[in-house]
Specification:
Elements lengths: L6 H7 L3 E6 L2 E6 L6 H21 L1 H5 L4 H10 L3 H28 L2 H12 L4 H8 L3 H18 L2
Antiparallel strand pairs: 1-2
Helix pairs in contact: 1-2, 6-8, 7-8
Length: about 160
């Protein structure tokens, strides 16, 4: 990140002066402080290069780190790897539990009841749509679904 207050930035901004930052403050060496124009330009190029080298030498550390004072909220937002692992394990457990429940439900119902309940609740088909698929009356589908729900409620109370 470019620091506008760095020695290098200050020196580059002042085209007609060499910026020297001392303990007492900022000193500007202008063209008048030198014997001639060539002398000033020689020292200006040298100071620009010296400040640039100094700035770049310290960049490796800062370019490869995150300043904590600026990014604390982002660092806290990263979920630990354990959370991701537990989420995967929980999902696998839930899948196993659902598979077991489906197996138990299927064992208590007839094949037609299970199929009709699946179409009704999972596929979101209406009783009329299921009746049309099976070429039977809607009342038969309705009774089959009602009986299937009673069997499931009885088994899982």
């Amino acid at each position: 990140m470019f620091d506008k207050k760095s020695n290098y930035a200050q020196n580059k901004c002042k085209k007609n002066a060499i910026v020297y930052i001392s303990v007492t403050g900022i000193v500007y060496l202008t063209r008048e402080d030198f014997a001639n124009e060539d002398e000033f330009l020689k020292w200006k190029r040298w100071s620009d290069g010296d400040y640039q080298t100094g700035e770049q030498s310290g960049r490796d550390f800062y370019d490869n780190t995150i300043p904590l004072d600026e990014k604390l909220d982002v660092i806290g937002a990263v979920a630990p790897i354990e959370d991701a692992l537990f989420a995967i394990l929980d999902e696998a457990e839930h899948r196993q539990m659902y598979a077991s429940l489906l197996k138990q439900i299927k064992s208590r119902l007839t094949e037609k009841q299970y199929c009709r309940l699946w179409l009704y609740y999972v596929e979101n088909l209406s009783e009329r749509d299921i009746a049309a698929l099976e070429h039977v009356g809607q009342q038969r589908i309705s009774k089959s679904i009602t009986i299937g729900k009673k069997i499931i409620r009885k088994h899982f109370k």
